[in-house]
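Reviewer 2 asked us to include a model.

Predict the structure of this chain.
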Amino acid sequence: MTGGGFTASANDFEAKITPIVILSCIMAATGGLMFGYDVGVSGGVTSMGAFLKEFFPEVYIRTVEEKELESNYCKYDNEKLQLFTSCLYLAGLTATFLASHITRKQGRRATMLIAGFIFIAGVAFNAAAQNLLMLIIGRLLLGCGVGFANQAVPVFLSEIAPSRMRGALNIMFQLNITLGILFANLVNYATNKIKGGWGWRLSLGLGGLPALFLTLGAFVVVDTPNSLIERGHLEEGKTVLRKIRGIENIEPEFLALVDACTVAKEIKHPFRNILKRRNRPQLLISIALHVFQQFTGINAIMFYGPVLFNTLGFTKDAALYCTVIIGAVNVISTVVSIYSVDRLGRRMLLFEAGVQMFLSQFVIAVIIGIKVRDHYDDLSKGFAVLVVVMVCVFVSAFAWSWGPLTWLIPSEIFPLETRSAGQSIAVCVNLLCTFLIAQAFLSMLCFFKFGIFLFFSGCILIMSAFVLFLLPETKNVPIEEMTERVWKHHWLWKRFAQDDLVKEEKVVTAD
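Predicted model (structure tokens):
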């Protein structure tokens, strides 16, 4: 079995790392800050007594006033509370289809601009919420902003980056997600100490800062040459390509883009085209990566970290402090990915992380299963520290592998004619699975207890086998040469590309 590993060839397009590329990538990747802040902030505010008392009084009563009557695992089991977290991702799932159309017809830059405006509106609703309805409307608007940003930003980053740096620059998006989560954790820790019970409003309101950065950034950055050429602006596309590559000899890459765009224009229905046989490997891999990413259990920790630690007997401050530590580990480990993704490759990082995540989840399940009971806990300081360490081990592995690479790989494996549709489906699947985990986790924790971590461990075993046997290596491969240099050489997927080639030859012969 071959994994499809390749190294850069002499035919790779020339390019320098220009200031405009760095600036554009930094600006665009603030979409990750926006997404990350929202992931981190929801878990913190749902553990704050003042927030629960105002919007979820039944949960507040169970967690504060009647602790002895409730199972440790079921304190926070409430459908409305889960809906507060999960409805954002349901809205994002819906919005991504409209975002796909705008990304293709109006460009990546326009989609990022819309994402920023919608997110700012959602932040305003949440920070000023007077009832649960306002809170949910705000979360739905945030979801639409996330759907637009997640559709456009990874594609933008993959298209504007030189092939040898595509992995590292694309992971700027994931790095900003982790920075957003860390920032949210720090804000939650600080606002929880504010007297008067209004700290949660500040936590939710500060989400407008990264959205403002993305909006301003969308005014500053240039659209990608791929998008400009695809929309018929050939001269502007050539000018932008020359500017971002920092060289005069951009003709080979420009002609490759024009050829790809010519093929793309012949595709009138990209969502129908993506179902064709030659596109099935990319579609299957993209969907599988996003499903597996969510079923590692990462968002159970990111969304409900403070709630989870409260369940295990941590105080409110200690729970929020632990999430700050985890957020810092998340950021540092993502930096490791930026350094290693274009050196070690995608497959090696994913497989190594699978082993590390499986072991850490299994250890967490064993500790909680032995030490935490339904109506009392016996989690000593030593075991509590060990649980936090194992969570950090798990998060670090995710952050340098499945976190960033799940977004990177789909953005680089689809041909131009189906790239926007492929990214839309990837975002849709990710948000659907995120919604399911966010909506179900607290109920699953109540039902399965420590077994929920064994469930996630089993999922990690399956996805590691998927990487080993079915995922080809794409490092250092120019984005428009994936078919020739990746799919036609993979032990399984080559038959899909070859079957299409045979069919085309038959059509030519018949003509």
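The first helix runs from residue 19 to 45. The chain is about 75% helix and 0% strand. We have added this to the supplementary material.
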